[in-house]
Amino acid sequence: MKRCFWLDESKPDYVEYHDKEWGVPVYDDKIFFEFLILESAQAGLSWYTILKRRQGYRQAFADFDPAIVATFSSAKVEELMLDSAIIRNRAKIEAAINNAQLFLDIQAEFGSFSQFIWGYVDNKPIDIRTKGDTPLATSALSDQLAKDLKKRGFKFLGSTTLYAFLQATGLINDHDIECVCRS
């Protein structure tokens, strides 16, 4: 079975993530919020580093409930700074809280984050890759989304991070052409 070239098939949990989750279209706001937190935590690190800590993030960030995360206090930030199950980066933790508050604003404005984000792709996944293409790190879409979210006040969500977010949540189908998961 051919899979994406970047996948380390010696890691069963990574293979499972690739085969069952990465690139599958998401419509659930809670899952979108989870990926916003995880992708922003990844900045400067490997995705596998974050994937291994996913359960720790789930516990630390209230099962990815943006309404709860939006209320985290400075005392909670200090508690999270001591939590070895997550990346203990104050700026990333504070960004997650800030972004939770803004995520709720988008839900209020658009009815759901899902409606907001799928509007960027006319409600259908975009196929990016063709045979032999080098994978992208950013696109005009991720550039625009980064600009729009920055204007709204989001943090730690630049174009590269948002491109990975769009890939992971299936708004962009970026599986290799010959990958079994492409279709």
Automatic annotation (TrEMBL):
<dbReference type="InterPro" id="IPR011257">
    <property type="entry name" value="DNA_glycosylase"/>
</dbReference>
<dbReference type="GO" id="GO:0006284">
    <property type="term" value="P:base-excision repair"/>
</dbReference>
<dbReference type="Pfam" id="PF03352">
    <property type="entry name" value="Adenine_glyco"/>
</dbReference>
<feature type="binding site">
    <location>
        <position position="18"/>
    </location>
    <ligand>
        <name>Zn(2+)</name>
    </ligand>
</feature>
<feature type="binding site">
    <location>
        <position position="175"/>
    </location>
    <ligand>
        <name>Zn(2+)</name>
    </ligand>
</feature>
<keyword id="KW-0862">Zinc</keyword>
<feature type="binding site">
    <location>
        <position position="179"/>
    </location>
    <ligand>
        <name>Zn(2+)</name>
    </ligand>
</feature>
<dbReference type="GO" id="GO:0046872">
    <property type="term" value="F:metal ion binding"/>
</dbReference>
<dbReference type="InterPro" id="IPR052891">
    <property type="entry name" value="DNA-3mA_glycosylase"/>
</dbReference>
<dbReference type="InterPro" id="IPR005019">
    <property type="entry name" value="Adenine_glyco"/>
</dbReference>
<protein>
    <submittedName>
        <fullName>Putative DNA-3-methyladenine glycosylase I</fullName>
    </submittedName>
</protein>
<keyword id="KW-0479">Metal-binding</keyword>
<dbReference type="GO" id="GO:0008725">
    <property type="term" value="F:DNA-3-methyladenine glycosylase activity"/>
</dbReference>
<feature type="binding site">
    <location>
        <position position="4"/>
    </location>
    <ligand>
        <name>Zn(2+)</name>
    </ligand>
</feature>
